Amino acid sequence: MKNDSLFLSAANHEETIDHFTRVAKNYEYTRRVPVAESVEIYPIKYYGAIQTGIHQFCRLENKVLINCGTFKLVNIWKQTPDGWKISRVASYGY
């Protein structure tokens, strides 16, 4: 949860997030706030963990939040020698 919070803080403020994961060049900055009581984490033996939950999600366009809603999320975390890295992110239920 600490790494997820650091990742979201960087992404929500349009800072570099390469420290956590490689991001496509066309990454669209968003604002995502997890609903803390909805978060569940499941270990994946020999790999890392799956994080599921609900988040409030908005797209940031011209410094204005648009298309806000509450949706489901899945983050797949990989434990590496350098620490935890997000390997996949999915937001669904739009």
Structure report:
- This protein is mainly β.
- It has one domain: Nuclear Transport Factor 2, Chain: A (Roll), CATH 3.10.450.
- 12% of the residues lie in helices and 54% in strands.
- Strands 1, 2, 3, 4 and 5 form a 5-stranded antiparallel β-sheet that branches.
- Strand 4 (64-80) and strand 5 form a beta hairpin.
- The longest helix has 11 residues, at 2-12.
- The chain is globular.
- Mean pLDDT is 78; it is low at 15-25.
Sum up the structure in keywords.
94 residues; mainly beta; 5-stranded antiparallel sheet; 1 helix; globular
Give a summary of the structure in a few sentences.
This protein is mainly beta and 94 residues long.
Detail the topology: elements first, then pairings:
Elements: H1 2-12, E1 30-34, E2 40-44, E3 48-61, E4 64-80, E5 83-92
Antiparallel strand pairs: 1-3, 2-3, 3-4, 4-5
Spatial extent as radius of gyration: 13 Å
* Helix/strand/pairing category: mainly beta
Major β-sheet profile: 5 strands, antiparallel
CATH architecture: Roll
**Quick one: overall form?**
globular
Proportion of helical residues: 10-25%
CATH topology: Nuclear Transport Factor 2, Chain: A
Distance between the termini: 24 Å
